[in-house]
Amino acid sequence: MEKGRSGGVDIPMDVKRVTARPGIKQDEERVALQRGPLVYCVEGADNNGKALNLILSDKANFTTNFRKDLLEGVVTFNFSRRQFRGQ
């Protein structure tokens, strides 16, 4: 590659549901979402203390979207409102 040029690699990173190892009582029936090497979870501190009230359908399908306008560029998860309920 010539000096001053840059390249890129496009690696598919599907969203996966991650569950805790069986036997970890604090994490029973809880999930996190993983995209590539990054793992995302919902925490009460970011959601007015209501993280445990959020329910994600087992059949939820995810898509991703790159948002250049957020924090100089981030990938967001997208799914229908019916698949995610908060109380």
Please, could you describe this protein's structure?
With 87 residues, this protein is an all-beta fold. Strand 2 and strand 3 form a beta hairpin. The protein has no helices and seven strands.
Give structural attributes.
single chain; 87 residues; mainly beta; three-stranded antiparallel beta sheet; two-stranded antiparallel ribbon
Question: Could you give the topology of this structure?
Answer:
Layout: E1 15-19, E2 31-35, E3 38-40, E4 55-56, E5 63-67, E6 74-78, E7 84-85
Antiparallel strand pairs: 1-2, 2-3, 4-7, 5-6
Radius of gyration: 17 Å
Global outline: elongated
Largest sheet: 3 strands, antiparallel
Secondary structure tally: strands = 7
Helix content estimate: under 10%
Summarize model confidence as the mean pLDDT: 79
Order of helix and strand elements from N to C terminus:
EEEEEEE
Distance between the termini: 54 Å
Read across the widest sheet, the strand sequence of neighbours is: 1-2-3
Into which percentage range does the β-strand content fall? 25-35%
| Number of helical stretches of at least 4 residues | 0
Estimated structural class: mainly beta
- Unreliable runs: none
Summarize the structure.
Helix content is 0%, strand content 31%.
